[in-house]
């Protein structure tokens, strides 16, 4: 059961990334992006996770983007490619709002997305570094419990 849930989240993150990317490029309404998106043959749980993630990131985008911007070192927000920016949004959202998902799993999944879809060959390093800094700040209580 747990392994299935993890796999659905992984697939859901990938689809959420595609939804976020499509929304950013098309500037279409959230509902229209969802309505016209082709999810293909994926489990219902993955579709639900993707839509939930997409909608909640869109709802909290200003806060999420501000957190990311505050953790950029020698890098300008507008220089980050849309796909990398949206991977960062997914990871940051989960770090901030999904305390039920372990920090390591969130960062690992973001790195996997970056390796597969990232705008540059080494996007995964960039994303890993930023999410690591964000996690150090917003998930410090996990370290305190160890």
Description:
By secondary structure, the chain is mostly helical. Helices cover 76% and strands 0% of the residues. It is built from eight helices and no strands. The chain has helices at 2-26, 30-36, 44-59, 61-70, 82-97, 103-117, 123-138, 140-145. Helix 1 crosses helix 3 and helix 5 packs antiparallel against helix 6.
Tally of separate helices: 8
Largest sheet report: none
Percent in strands: under 5%
Total strands: 0
Question: Could you give the topology of this structure?
Answer:
Blueprint: H1 2-26, H2 30-36, H3 44-59, H4 61-70, H5 82-97, H6 103-117, H7 123-138, H8 140-145
Helix pairs in contact: 1-3, 1-5, 4-5, 5-6, 5-7, 6-7
Features:
mainly alpha, globular
Short structural description:
This protein is an all-alpha fold and about 150 residues long. It is built from 8 helices and no strands.
């Amino acid at each position: 059961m747990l392994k299935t849930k993890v796999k659905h989240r992984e697939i859901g993150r990938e689809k959420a990334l595609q939804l976020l990317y499509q929304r950013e490029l098309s500037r279409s309404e959230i509902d229209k992006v969802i309505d016209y998106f082709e999810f293909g043959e994926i489990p219902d749980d993955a579709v639900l996770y993707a839509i939930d993630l997409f909608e909640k990131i869109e709802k909290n985008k200003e806060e999420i983007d501000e957190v990311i911007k505050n953790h950029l070192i020698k890098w300008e927000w507008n220089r980050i490619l849309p796909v990398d920016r949206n991977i960062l949004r997914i990871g940051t959202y989960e770090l901030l709002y999904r305390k039920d998902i372990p920090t390591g799993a969130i960062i690992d999944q973001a790195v996997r997305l970056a390796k597969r879809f990232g705008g540059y060959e080494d996007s995964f390093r960039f994303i890993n570094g930023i999410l690591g800094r964000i996690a150090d700040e917003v998930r410090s209580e996990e370290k305190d419990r160890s």
